[in-house]
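Subject: design request, 308 residues
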């Protein structure tokens, strides 16, 4: 497997070799999703290369973003048996003259006070779903959101209602940003666990998951991949091994790889992630840990078949 086509000054030293160990049969299957698809050409190029390498199993698209149409023209030809393409619902970034609803902090406060403009949120969701279908010629395989806002009170009601009405009989799966640690004490041991726990509690991930499942949506078990985007390649490689070791069946690991571009506030983190995910030794790490990567839509279908 070839190395990524481009290295930049934003990336650092080559990560250490992957864990030694004899290959084991697949014991756990997870999905891996690249967020922010369509944001810029660097994100698109990295996401598509990793999808073709089968290092990831989902792309989440920002359909208002500048490079969405260019990315969709290639993403629509990816094999849907191996990759889910869904909507990364956005309310907090402004694109192409479409104003943001507000910062995530503003939305969290307004949501818990029940003061969000519900009509504007519904219209934004419908517009973004329309834009997805116009370019992909199909419904999104899943829905999540930028900065996890789809979990918030009022927003989650609108999201689940729109999806249930629009895709009756073939519901997309939805992301729950449920932390891998359930208690504050457990989450205090590592900075990335604290961030995951705070995201879970601030946006109401468990309430969203309970409501979504009651309506018949398939939801991932837990969300892995939260950190501060400041790691070196070796540091991110260590985080990735940590997440994979603790992964359970049906977990979702989010990532943000990209070929760094000026103006992207997390370009350093994107470059680091791309190098680690594209490393030639990554498949051996999966075999050693007994981890399989598959689309969450496929994981959900198998789970439904096993259900009584």
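Subject: RE: design request

Done. Sequence follows.
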């Amino acid at each position: 497997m070839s190395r990524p086509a481009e290295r930049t000054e934003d990336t650092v030293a080559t990560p250490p070799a992957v864990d030694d160990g004899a290959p084991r049969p697949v014991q756990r299957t997870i999905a891996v999703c690249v967020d922010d698809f369509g944001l810029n050409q660097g994100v698109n190029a990295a996401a598509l290369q990793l999808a073709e390498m089968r290092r990831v199993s989902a792309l989440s698209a920002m359909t208002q973003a500048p490079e969405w149409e260019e990315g969709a023209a290639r993403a629509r030809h990816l094999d849907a048996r191996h990759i889910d393409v869904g909507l990364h619902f956005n309310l907090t970034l402004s694109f192409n003259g479409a104003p943001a609803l507000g910062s995530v902090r503003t939305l969290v406060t307004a949501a818990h006070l029940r003061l969000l403009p519900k009509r504007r949120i519904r219209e934004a969701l419908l517009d973004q779903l329309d834009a997805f279908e116009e370019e992909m010629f199909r419904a999104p395989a899943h829905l999540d959101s930028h900065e996890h806002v789809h979990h918030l009170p009022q927003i989650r009601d609108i999201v689940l209602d729109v999806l249930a009405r629009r895709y009756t009989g073939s519901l997309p799966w939805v992301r729950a940003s449920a932390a891998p640690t359930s208690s504050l004490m457990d989450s205090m041991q590592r900075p990335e666990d604290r961030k995951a726990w705070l995201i879970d509690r601030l946006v109401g991930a468990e309430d969203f998951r309970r409501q979504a499942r009651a309506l018949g949506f398939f939801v991932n078990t837990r969300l892995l991949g939260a950190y501060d985007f400041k790691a070196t390649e070796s540091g991110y490689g260590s985080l990735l091994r940590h997440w994979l070791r603790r992964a359970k069946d049906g977990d979702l690991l989010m990532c943000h790889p990209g070929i760094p571009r000026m103006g992207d506030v997390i370009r350093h983190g994107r470059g680091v992630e791309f190098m680690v995910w594209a490393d030639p030794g990554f498949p051996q790490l999966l075999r050693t840990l007994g981890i399989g990567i598959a689309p969450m839509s496929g994981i959900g279908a198998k789970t439904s078949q096993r259900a009584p």
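The CA atoms of residues 75 and 176 lie 24 Å apart.
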